[in-house]
Specification:
single chain; mainly alpha; Endonuclease_7; 212 residues; elongated; 9 helices; two-stranded antiparallel sheet
Length: 212
Amino acid sequence: MNLQRARRAGQRLPREHDFCVNPTCGTEITHLRRDAKYCSRRCRNQVEARKLAAAREAKRGRPWVPTSTGCETCGADLTERRAARPNGAVRFCSDECWKEAYYGRPEWPLERRDYNARFNFSLPPGRYIEMVQEQGNVCAIDGCPNEAISVDHDHRCCDGAYSCGRCVRAILCRTCNSGIGMLRDDPALVRAAAEYLDHWDARTRSPVAADA
């Protein structure tokens, strides 16, 4: 008996899977398709989402590591919410905590920078302020005061404006941070640029160049 006759007769043919292959479901499959693996589209979408998340993490080369054990705003436990997500990437317990974290602005500028560093560079709360105080509130390269506002990170690890937190190096002024970024964070290229400037600086200050 073929599939169409079985449907008209209301009979079930032998199938490959009698139960849903979704690990979190396992419900018996009741529809007549012999090649069905899932009991519903929802289960199929959940499995596909897990596969996509696993492929994405494998491409990145490292799993997502939470910066805290609980909600980053109120500290509530996130074990159940992280278990329900394919990759466990949950940082807040509710939309209210998410809105408070992203839209609630601290009063002082240094605290606001620390607040931004938490979400843009995955730094623990207060770590930005500690780094600024350890450097004496100056840039780690040129030592200019009251300008150390940019968080420098290794772009070979995280290419872009955001960081995983493990590749953060120091606090720089905007000029130095943009400068080494333009030189592609390459020490050899930075040294070549320094030698180039020294060469032309010495040539400009030489007596022959002054007479000319």
